[in-house]
Design a protein that fits this description.
33 strands, 20% strand, 26% helix, single chain, alpha+beta, eight-stranded mixed β-sheet
């Protein structure tokens, strides 16, 4: 993997790993959410035709022999030397076996094996097209989006840290040296982005005898301590908030994990609570107990004791612990219902600065035409976000409420647009009435408090001369054309960018993209991570289509659709998604196919594209005609833009398994655990059986549906109850039973949960449970009152393409 890691011991001065040094990739992420299928109504397969199952591993394109480096022989590389599997013609209206038996791998770029070995891991850096068109006109003709999806701060194992005071960068474009540069001789190297020839610093000089690159440890070291880690917790203590019981959970979780809070001896913490007034807490060392200071003038907020709001955690740890133990009881009898969140930052903030009022009409939730109020109601939070970004302050929002909170104003202004924080949304949260949400909140909070974090971060994305970035997607502030400001960065955040081709790449064999993330570690060290991706340049439409990455395309289109929903309308976004499928398949039919055939034809690499587009139409963020709370819709939009691709795909297209007949055949063995691997089923009620039990994994939520006639032996040995009728209504935990069936089911569910950093909620439901409607709404291939079935959607695409 070419994800070189730099460490900076002098501010803005990283050091370089020896060129060509390959790092070991981290553990592969779970690649879920891509199993389309055949609903009732499909035509039968032609007699004698048998669809071949896809191999577990996608075959790379045919590669001509060539040297390991960037040599002129790459110019002769072409996909036309043989029809790759990616271009196999698939009639979507006839072929049934479209799903691979395992996770769908990212396409393999047409590069030499040596370049493949050092290329960036697609879990970290991925392009929608793994073969870059030679010209913008060729890209326009292909009708497919060109963009990058990044997971730059992903948790990785075996991540070496190298320290030095010298860096090697291109003197012209400032690109960091990487495995794809060319060494002209021992003293000169050629940049792979702007092609300038640079000198190699003496301490990085290549020694042909030792085959090593200098002695970087001989460089001088400088250390200027950056700002310390600072955590300010702002807590709603109004009656409505406390009635949910969240404050007890928060205080206990923070007490349990206080020692694991990322930072060093300089780490500072502070606390603010609010209802109709703002409460500050003096936790200065030397006090016998915490002091609460109340500011009632919420229109003109001031800090009563500016020097004591934030205190050193090590010096005031006992006072912090005392405050966390006493906070829940301090406000337990309050009847104050007003919430002044806006003032606390300068519950639905309905008082003071940034006050919000309800904009949702429940009678319009199922409006089949469009959805209103997706944009902020006030620019107060936008202005606040800009101020926070300028001071390197990120804001994360935990929203626990059954009432409307105007997340469109809070999230889209405060978090979504300019700050690198995230929104955690727990609808209908209540400590007693919704224990599943409480468990999720506890696990999310622990992850949030203890995960790795980077402060004062900036990320710059560079690309080969002739390419440019024109749109960013994610949570950040765009400081310049290629520089993103991130007050902090965490390993759970993803980003996306759209690219364009400004100059023809006629004389270019390969292009490179480089993302450099500069940040301060929780220990106060300035570090840089650099990820470099190399892709070939092609001049034919067939080569472009052969390198299409259907999941990356879907992820980028989802980000684009979210932005379009907010800036234009939801109907415009939905129409654009449909047109993306129509345009790409029409181009393939008209310009790539040499022999015209009847049906809806797609290359094998895009066989899942229509299904994913339909899945986006039925996703909570974009669906219409179904009653969807406005806050829940906005939360889904925020998740699609914030989540890295692997997790977003699971939210777009869930996976369905039958789990009442799990066996050890084909199971994985991980750390002495046996993990069953049931096959994935189509998202259609046709695949359900009342004699079985089915698990649906939709990313943030899981459903275990128990059929009315499910085997009583499975029910007793897995759920610990004697019969179907005895299954509790609000069961959300699998009991730990000493039976083989229980161990298999728990092992499989636990393994699925381990594949993501957030904690999904598990709902165990019966056939007549209230939550069955949510379960059925994820059956993407079935028809609903307001949405087409998968087969009907394919017919619609065919009709539009044939016009």
């Amino acid at each position: 993997m070419s994800s070189l890691r730099f460490v900076q011991v002098e501010p803005f001065t990283p050091v370089i790993l020896p060129p060509g040094g390959a790092l070991q990739p981290g553990p592969p992420g779970r690649h879920l959410g891509h199993y389309p299928s055949l609903p009732p109504g499909y035509q039968s397969m032609p007699p004698g035709h048998t669809a071949q199952p896809y191999p577990l591993k996608q075959q790379p394109y045919q590669q001509p022999p060539g040297p390991a480096g960037l040599s002129p022989s790459l110019a002769a590389m072409s996909l036309q030397s043989g029809m790759p599997e990616a271009l196999r013609v698939v009639n979507l209206l006839q072929e049934r076996n479209l799903l691979p038996p395992g996770p769908l791998p990212a396409p393999t770029p047409c590069l030499t094996q040596d370049l493949q070995r050092i290329n960036c891991n697609p879990e970290v850096f991925r392009s929608t097209l793994t073969s870059i068109p030679q010209t913008q006109s060729l890209l326009n003709k292909a009708k497919m989006p060109l963009g990058l999806l990044l997971h730059p701060f992903k948790d990785l194992s075996q991540l070496p840290v190298v320290t030095s005071s010298t860096i090697v960068r291109c003197r012209s474009c400032r690109t960091y040296i990487n495995p794809f540069v060319s060494f002209l001789d021992q003293r000169r190297w050629k940049c792979n982005l702007c092609y300038r020839v640079n000198d190699v610093p003496e301490e990085f000089m290549y020694n042909p005898v030792s085959r090593a690159y200098g002695e970087p440890h001989r460089g001088r070291r400088y250390r200027t301590p950056p700002q310390p880690a600072v955590y300010l917790f702002v807590l709603d203590v109004s009656h409505n908030a406390l009635e949910t019981g969240y404050l007890h959970v928060f205080c206990q979780s923070l007490l349990d994990n206080l020692e694991s809070l990322p930072g060093d001896s300089r780490t500072k913490v502070g606390f603010i609570t609010f209802d109709s007034t703002i409460h500050f807490y003096n936790l200065q060392e030397g006090l016998s107990q915490p002091q609460m200071l109340i500011v009632s003038d919420i229109e003109d907020i001031f800090l009563p004791t500016p020097d004591s709001l934030l205190v050193n955690l090590n010096e005031s740890k006992e006072l912090v612990q005392d405050l966390l133990k006493s906070l829940p009881s301090l406000f337990e009898k309050t009847m104050e219902t007003q919430s002044a969140l806006g003032s606390a930052l300068q519950s639905l903030p309905n008082l003071g600065a940034g006050a919000l009022q309800s904009r949702e009409d429940p009678n319009q939730r199922a409006n089949a035409k469009d959805v209103q109020h997706l944009s902020p109601a006030t620019d107060f939070y936008k202005k606040l976000a800009l101020d926070c970004s300028g001071q390197q302050v990120a804001v994360d929002l935990f929203l626990l409420s059954a009432q409307y909170c105007d997340l469109a104003s809070l999230g889209n202004s405060l978090i979504f647009c300019f700050l690198s924080g995230a929104v955690y949304y727990y609808p209908s949260y209540h400590q007693q009435h919704n224990p599943a949400q409480v468990e999720r909140f506890q696990k999310d909070l622990k992850r949030y408090i203890t995960r790795k974090i980077g402060f004062e971060a900036v990320m710059r994305i560079r690309c080969t001369k002739g390419l440019s970035i024109h749109t960013f997607h994610g949570n950040f502030f765009v400081r310049s054309t290629d520089l993103l400001s991130l007050p902090n960065v965490n390993p759970d955040a993803g980003f996306a960018v759209q690219m364009s081709i400004d100059e023809n790449l006629d004389d270019t064999q390969v292009v490179s993209f480089q993302a450099a993330l500069l940040y301060t570690s929780s220990k106060g060290e300035r570090r840089i991570r650099v990820h470099t991706l190399c892709l070939p340049v092609v001049n034919s439409l067939s080569d472009i289509f052969a390198g299409a990455d259907v999941q990356a395309m879907t992820g980028l289109l989802a980000c684009m659709a979210v932005d379009r929903s907010i800036t234009a309308s939801l109907s415009d976004a939905r129409e654009a998604l449909t047109n993306a499928a129509i345009d790409s398949l029409a181009c393939y039919r008209q310009s790539v196919l040499t022999i015209q055939q009847p049906g809806l034809l797609a290359p094998a690499c895009l066989r899942l594209f229509p299904l994913y587009i339909l899945a986006l139409h039925k996703q909570k963020a974009f669906r219409v005609g179904t009653s969807t709370r406005l806050d829940e819709r906005v939360s889904a939009m925020l998740q699609l833009k914030y989540q890295p691709l692997a997790y977003a795909m699971l939210m777009i297209h869930p996976t369905l398994y039958r789990v009442d007949d799990l066996t050890d055949e084909g199971a994985l063995n991980i750390n002495d655990r046996t993990i069953p691997q049931p096959r994935v089923l189509q998202l259609s009620v046709e695949k359900l059986s009342r004699e079985g039990a089915f698990l649906m994994d939709a990313g943030t939520v899981m459903y275990l549906w128990i059929g009315r006639n499910c085997n009583p032996s499975f029910i007793s040995q897995v759920l610990g109850v004697p019969s179907y009728a005895a299954v509790p209504e609000n069961l959300y935990l699998l009991p730990e039973l000493d039976t083989a069936e229980s161990q298999r089911v728990r092992a499989f569910v636990g393994w699925l949960k381990e594949q993501r950093p957030f904690a999904p909620t598990l709902h165990i439901i019966r056939d007549e449970s209230q939550m069955k409607s949510s379960f059925l709404q994820s059956m993407i291939e079935d028809r609903t009152e307001s949405a087409l079935s998968y087969y009907e959607f394919l017919l619609h695409l065919q009709q539009q393409i044939s016009k």
